[in-house]
Design brief:
Length: 252
């Protein structure tokens, strides 16, 4: 049953990643943390998310904005080790609370930002500080919660970034960000991947490619508004469930 639920989370998150350019960590992450625990679950999300982004990237490689990618990655990677030190001694309940809060607050911020879209001017064309701030926030979110997408989504709305260029550039950024988070947590915080059997890892790999394949079929057939509504609803459900369990564990 655990593996079945894990596969369903990966399938759905992978399909959203292909359709919307992001969503695996945001939607699947909280459910995976509930299934595997805070430390191992977040590391699992990082590892699978890195492979997921690599698989999606090959379909979008020509649209990557490498200049923005370089500035984002420079900031996020430099944040990984300090964030791992901060999270090293945190209890599992505290980490679950962090995961839940990151999802709920970031999703709410993204929704509010979207409503303010028409009232904000884009950043200056050559501004670097918004990219650096976004990279730092995303790097910390990836280490702490396995979720680095919301800061990037907020930046894309404020800067009115072309959705196709955003989705393409997000893939190498998520991949690099997740790899940096895995290395930082394994070396600094002594976190290890969950002890799944070898055949279970094969199932996980199949689910990963299956999710991208489903997303490939849905891309262009599902409206952006419908995708956004499902992503928001599932993100809130998963985030609130993780936050609630962390609070209950901490208070009992």
């Amino acid at each position: 049953m655990l593996l079945l639920l894990l596969v369903l989370a990966i399938l759905f998150g992978g399909a959203l990643q292909r359709v919307a350019g992001m969503g695996f960590g945001l939607v699947a992450g909280p459910f995976i943390v509930l299934l595997l625990g805070a430390r191992e679950g977040v590391l699992f999300v990082n590892a699978v998310g890195a492979v997921m982004a690599l698989v999606v990237l090959w379909r979008m490689l020509s649209g990557v904005d490498w200049r923005r990618y370089a500035w984002l990655v420079a900031a996020s990677v430099s944040t990984s080790v300090p964030a791992a030190f901060l999270m090293r001694d945190a209890s599992p309940a505290t980490l679950e609370i962090v995961v839940g809060l990151v999802v709920v607050v970031a999703m709410t911020l993204a929704l509010v930002t979207n409503r303010l879209r028409g009232a904000r001017r884009p950043f200056p064309e050559h501004a670097r500080w918004p990219l650096l701030v976004t990279g730092v926030a995303s790097g910390f979110g990836s280490v702490a919660a396995g979720i680095g997408g919301p800061p990037l989504a907020v930046y894309s709305v404020l800067d009115r970034w072309d959705p196709r260029a955003f989705a393409a550039t997000a893939q190498p950024f998520f991949m690099t960000n997740a790899v940096a988070a895995v290395v930082a947590k394994v070396t600094v915080a002594d976190v290890v991947l969950p002890p799944l059997a070898w055949w279970a890892w094969l199932v996980v790999g199949a689910a990963l490619f299956g999710g991208v394949w489903v997303g490939e079929l849905l891309a262009g057939r599902v409206s952006a508004s419908a995708t956004r509504r499902v992503l928001v609803a599932l993100a809130y459900v998963g985030g609130l469930a993780t936050l609630t369990r962390g609070l209950v564990t901490l208070l009992t």
